[in-house]
Design a protein that fits this description.
mainly beta, Photosynthetic Reaction Center, Chain H, domain 2, SH3 type barrels, 2 domains, 7-stranded mixed sheet, 10% helix
């Protein structure tokens, strides 16, 4: 099942130990290399502000009731998990990221996205159209299979709008896009992560 990102914000965090809600999801930590939410920021009365990160691997179950975890001990702080820290250092966000085709046609900016409910992998991008094009179509849905390159300031897709709209209704996910950041650039210097990868991952 697909979850809309905007609807996922505010999802309750349910602790089995506390037998109830301890907080809620407030934001995503998305790994640009895989376009997957590997963790989430959380807050709430039952959550220590110093440990406000929920690793996606700690979620036992997701349902309409919320995200079930064992206890507040599953929450972590920045500096606890290297994998999460590397993504945080990139300061990457899908919100308002520009989208354009390989030919340079500007399609708009991301205003929402969908992801799977089992491993939180991004499947579709919801793009707000530029003002002139918005007269005919206010939003464009782009399936993951159209993505060929991800950088820290834009996403590049394969085809023009008509082809993308047609495929969005019938295509399943086929992983086929480049590594968005060079391995050597996964450091604590965000200013050094401005260049896209040089080669495609087939």
């Amino acid at each position: 099942m697909l979850i809309t990102a905007s609807n996922f914000i505010g999802t309750p965090i349910l602790s089995m130990q506390a037998s109830g809600k301890i907080g809620e999801i407030t934001d995503f930590i998305i790994e640009p290399e895989s376009l997957k939410a590997i963790a989430f920021f959380v807050s709430g009365p039952g959550i220590n502000p110093e440990t406000d990160i929920l690793d996606a691997k700690s979620i036992r179950e997701y349902s309409s009731y919320g995200c079930v975890i064992d206890s507040e001990d599953d929450l972590t702080a920045r500096g606890d998990v290297v994998r999460i820290d590397k993504v945080l250092d990139l300061n990457f966000s899908l919100n308002e990221l520009k989208v354009e085709t390989k030919k340079g046609t500007k399609l708009g900016q991301i205003v929402n996205f969908t992801m799977t409910d089992d491993n939180f992998t991004v499947q579709q991008l919801i793009v707000r159209r530029p003002k002139l094009k918005a007269l005919l179509d206010t939003e464009l849905t782009i399936p993951r299979s159209e993505i060929v390159e991800v950088t820290d300031d834009k996403i590049i897709v394969k085809d023009e709008e008509k082809t993308i709209k047609a495929r969005a209704e019938k295509e399943d996910f086929i992983p086929n896009f480049v590594n968005p950041f060079r391995k050597t650039e996964l450091s604590r210097a965000p200013a050094q992560t401005k260049n896209p990868a040089d080669t495609d991952i087939e």
